Amino acid sequence: MAVNAKKITVFVLVVFAVYVIITDPEQAADYVQIGFQGISDAAKAIGDFMTWIADGGDS
């Protein structure tokens, strides 16, 4: 039952993504840019944290 729910959820998300891309490509591009910016910010924060740990964790 959980597998079917997962498949349905993925299908709904794909249909929504295609709908957004077709109806408003500019907005879809903005969503992609926001997503990549969030990933980039998260990677930078992890890198800063690891650098802080490597430096001994001092403030």
Q: Can you lay out the helices and strands and say which pair or pack?
A:
Layout: H1 2-23, H2 25-54
> How many alpha or pi helices?
2
**Large-scale geometry:** elongated
> How many strands, what sense, and barrel or not for the largest sheet?
none
The computed structural class is: mainly alpha
Average predicted local confidence, pLDDT: 90
Strand content: under 5%
Number of strands: 0
Spans where pLDDT lies below 50 across 5 or more residues:
none
Radius of gyration: 19 Å
Helical residue percent band: over 70%
SSE ordering: HH
Give the N-to-C terminal Cα separation.
Answer: 50 Å
Task: Please explain how this structure is put together.
Helix 1 packs across helix 2. This protein is mainly α and 59 residues long. The protein is built from 2 helices and no strands. The protein is elongated, with a radius of gyration of 19 Å. It has a domain of 35 residues.
